[in-house]
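Quick one, T. Sequence first:
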Amino acid sequence: MVYESSVLFTNTAKSLIWLLKMDKLKTKIRDIPDFPKQGILFKDITPLVQDPNSLRFAIEQLIKPFKNSNITAVAGMEARGFIFGSLVAWELNVGFIPLRKPGKLPYDVQSVAYTLEYGEASLEAHIDAIKPNDRILLIDDLLATGGTAKASCQLIEKLGGEVVACAFVIELAMLHGRGQLKNTPIHSLIQY
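Structure tokens:
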């Protein structure tokens, strides 16, 4: 009985410390009203990536659940997914796969088109970027409506990879982006 109480107290204390650290990380996210268009409240990660301690903590927390998941590569979407994705790949000692807008990659590509809340878009990856049965961790700075993340997962699978999970620094929970990724584990650090 005493042991169970001690474990419960320890786990509760760890959870509280983690929440306090996330609140501190949240202070590094700057709100920019009406960007990129009227009515949008943009979550700017620039202050976070400018602070080495906050950046290091965010990367540590992004990879924490996946350290023993046999990830073989990390993929990130243009452009802010490149920042976090390449650092996560570095920490996991695996390669990085850039998922880019059309016309940006120099070699043969595979692409996936998708719908955004304000139009159409597509993503591309080199046809040899993913090996069959690669276990991919998809990283981006933000999960909003989930359209870009869903298309990224489709592109990875189209190239023969398996999406092990998606990890995001920020999740705008009120936009229900998780609904687009129903069968994929999702890890986010900060929720709004």
